[in-house]
Amino acid sequence: MAPIRVTLIPGTDPRAPSITSKIENTSSERVKLLKDPNTVTSPMATKTFTIAPASEGTAPSFKGIMVKWAPDILLRNDRPGDFIILQPGESQTVEHSLGKAWNFGEQNTMFTVTGARKSLLAVNPAGDLVTLDAEFTPCTLEVGVRM
């Protein structure tokens, strides 16, 4: 199956922490990814990312949602909105509002988003569910209110 590269891009407003996931098909094959609510393919406020303080301090606490879902039902229904389809060399972005999922506190601080769930669900050419391991590029995120 085709390899996927995910680049995490920090938002620019420290008062509204966000990340954009750029999902890129680096192969020569078409890729059809499921919009799994527990991965970077979905904007839902789930525990998608691994976040740690960039230096001293405490990691943010998770306050988002847990989602139980059935990928086989999405596959069977085959609705276009449930998938990200990428041709070779194409990419798509997904916006993640981290403030909905994480409590960063009120201090000005830097956090490192070290990664996310690397296994993404995809549909192979035969129509079966398969797992793709994505390559991730982490990012550093500034959070807080500037004085």
Structure description:
By secondary structure, the protein is mainly β. It has one domain: Immunoglobulin-like (Sandwich). The protein has one helix and twelve strands, in the order βββββαβββββββ. Strands 6-3-10-11-1-2-7 form a seven-stranded mixed sheet, with helices on one face. The chain has a three-stranded antiparallel sheet with strand order 4-9-12, with no helix packed on it. A hairpin with a 5-residue loop joins β10 and β11. The longest helix is centred in the middle third of the chain and has 7 residues. 27% of the residues are buried.
Output the helix-strand order. Answer: EEEEEHEEEEEEE
**What CATH first level would be assigned?**
Mainly Beta
Structural class: mainly beta
CATH fold-level label: Immunoglobulin-like
The order of strands across the largest sheet is 6-3-10-11-1-2-7
Q: Largest beta sheet, briefly?
A: 7 strands, mixed
Tally of DSSP β-strands? 12
Count of helical stretches: 1
Q: What coarse outline follows from CA principal-axis ratios?
A: elongated
